[in-house]
């Protein structure tokens, strides 16, 4: 069994990766579309 601390660290890494991917996806849109999404 993994410790909760280890699990939360892995979750943080996963969330960080997701945030980076989301940011990169947003960067591909033209600015007007970014405003519409947000």
From TrEMBL:
PANTHER family: OS04G0250700 PROTEIN, OSJNBB0026I12.6 PROTEIN. This is Uncharacterized protein. It comes from Nymphaea colorata.
């Amino acid at each position: 069994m993994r410790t909760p601390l280890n699990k939360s660290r892995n979750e943080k890494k996963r969330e960080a990766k997701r945030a980076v991917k989301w940011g990169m996806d947003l960067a591909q849109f033209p600015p007007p579309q970014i405003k519409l999404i947000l």
